[in-house]
Amino acid sequence: MNPTVGIAVILTVLQAAHCQMIKDLSACLLGQNLRVDCRYENKTSNPLTYEFSITKDNRKHVIHSTISVSENIYRSRANVTMHKNLVCLHLQSFTTSDEGVYMCELRATNDYTGNQIRNITVIKDKLEKCAGFSLLIQNTSWLLLLLLSLPLLQAVDFVSL
Asked: Does the pLDDT value for residue 9 go beyond 60?
């Protein structure tokens, strides 16, 4: 084997190794809705797939996923948003029947080290309200509008006014 090709193969394998790692899994209430934040560190631009599930009564129920099929009872109530290094599960009309052990599973394409999985036990009475900063992440339209208007504000010469 050509030494250059051998080095390229080794570098490709090393780049694929440890492509993403779940750093934190947290849950909070946003009104009557549950939000589960799965924060991760990503060291590749490879596409990321995810699965949020709940284990209750010793049975795994898929809530929302790009890896497998979601169960009907959650399909109309759940959605997922992805931001830089953050995958958020939003479950509408959260009740005590939705309590259990929630799991976030992440997998990067061509990551041969296996899936990253993290669990959190969610009990409605013990959940805190989501922090104010998380609301900004949820409602970014006004923030995006502000950021897009910054060049216009910089172009205006306030000194001459």
From this structure: no
